Amino acid sequence: MWPACYRFWINLLKNNRRTHLMTGSTSRAKRSGSLKSMLVMSVGGLLVMLTAGNFVLNAVSAKHHLQGQLEVQAQDAATALGLSLSSVFEKGDEVTASSVIDALFDRGYYDQVVLWNTSGEAWVVRQAKLAEAGTVPGWFRRLVKLEAPLASADVVKGWNQLGRVSLKVNPGASYERLWRSMLTELAWFGFVFILAMLALLAIVSSALRPIKSMVGLADAVVKRDFSIRAEEKGASELVRVSKSMNLMADRLQLIFGEQLEQIELLRSEVHFDPVTGLLNRAEFDRRLTAELDSRDAVQEGNLIIFQIREFDGYNNQFGRDRGDRLLCAVTGLIVEQGKAIDGAFIGRRAGADFVIYLPGLTDDKAESIADAVIRSVSSLRAVKEWCREDIVHAGVAAAFGHCASVLLSNADLALRKAQNERRNGWQRYTDIAGESVNGGARQSGEWRDMICNALRSSGVSLHFQPVFLAGDEPVLYYKSLARLTSQSEEVSAGLFMPMVERFGMLPELDKQVISLAVRELDESLHYGAKLGVSISTESALENGFARWVQSFFSAHPAAAHCLVLELPEYIVQRNPVTFSEWFERSRLSGFTVVVDKFGRSALPFSYLKKYPVKWLKIDRHYLEGVESNRENRFYIQSVIQIAHSLDIKVIAFGVEHRTEWQLLKELGVDAGAGFGLQKPLSSIAFSR
User: Fold this and answer.
1) Which partner from 1, 267, 318, 650 sits 20 to 30 angstroms from 525, CA to CA?
2) What is the share, in percent, of the chain residues with pLDDT greater than 70?
3) Low-confidence residues of the chain, pLDDT below 50?
4) What CATH number corresponds to the domain at position 68?
5) pTM summary value
6) Phi/psi class of residue 544: alpha, beta or left (left: φ > 0; alpha: ψ in -120 to 50)?
């Protein structure tokens, strides 16, 4: 029995798994019956057939037995009555004969008793009324139908026949006996059947319990969770299957881990400096170009180039190993200053040249960071042992209105100016040119007033950029883009976001955007539309903002299920617990979470296995020149392969050309958005 069960279970598991992978459906309506139910139903059916057959055979046997008893009873009664009447009949005493017959007839076991004389005339007749007495139902009488036997005997005296007596037995008492017997037998069979089924359920459940753990293991492997193991107990055949499945899971975990390590290694070699772990020169330039050329990027920012002067001399004096340790120490100081800046990225260009881009950061804050790094580097023990005063310098340049090459050139000119001062320090490019690149911009006070007025007086509006699914390109959702309206002028996020961040108003702005998106959804829920909202890192990490989101979505449950919140990947770096809590809020409120700016924080891919991520959005700088850049294509393809293996969908944001979109779809991207697909819309015709 067990080998057959084992083979059946394997085929059933394969068929269910194949159906699940092809259709993605876990509906019970589409599943085959469980092995447990099939075994119980099969054995239970056999028990029912056995019990029913036994019951019918017993009923037939009892009927024949009672029928025979009735015939014997009738004949014995007729013979005894004939003997009793022989002396009475000879004297012609009709009264005594009637008394003898009445004594027999009144017991109620006979329907008819007749005493015949030798001439064939009925001398004494007793006939019972036709009535079905007792508790036996009519259908049972008709089903078993006992025949009422008719028996007769001669009344003789010596060798002379005096007459003949005949009688017919009433089967009512036999019906009663048979009915009570069948009820008792039915109750007994029912009791035994229930006990047998309970025992069968217990035995089958115990025998098949390892299968449940095998199914759990299979489901976990599909989700790339290798922490679950199947129970290795029960029938020997199932134990062997469990061991094989556990071995398979161990091997798959090893293969998957090796694949992930290889991809991470290749990614590091392509994008990162091997000594410091920072972005290498080519990757930094690509990311800077993508940041500055993007249509929706923050347009204000600063770039700082740091350089340790005559670093070759340090290597010659102290050795290359100590030189590498100095580079790592400087890296740590720069990272410490830049980690709090949302969207900042750092690279090593060559030798002891470091560069950091600070998007959305005002000039004074960028200068304070440059000064802090220089002072920290100057105080390093390794630098002091060098016994030089003119070691570390920095050049600062504003990014407003410049392309990547010009910005790098400006910062380099500022660096040369700082080095000409013959002391540790920094210089800004605008100081050299004698002019301000932001000369036409609003003053800080004007920005504050404009932003405060917009937040108070509904001066925030939304534009919408559709995110298209690959394939037939239906809209997955519409990404909400904030705009400020001031004096009939519409200001894009790239201009006002640095000031919103500077004045600490990001949570208020995000609340305003969420409220507008929910209002839009409340008016259009019957069209099935979905809207996406990007949440800033500061807002996502703030407990008060999280509580507001939970409360607000509780008041708008229907709209919450149609909302997509894009959370920056930086949250994982800064507070993994908070990142996990957002997924719990998603489960409670119904909104969808998309990991935004994926790849910018340089986190290892393995973190995706720790969270229930369903969608991620590749940072736009990886799309820069994807048609000609093999490194970016490799990275995107690696992300897609790993994401799909974890059942995560991938969105490409920042698609500028149709040819890019076609290539991305060939690489396996699930959805995309950008000016190359659709420009932002001032309103959405949901009815379409």
Assistant:
1) 650
2) 88
3) 1-30, 431-441
4) 3.30.450
5) 0.60
6) alpha
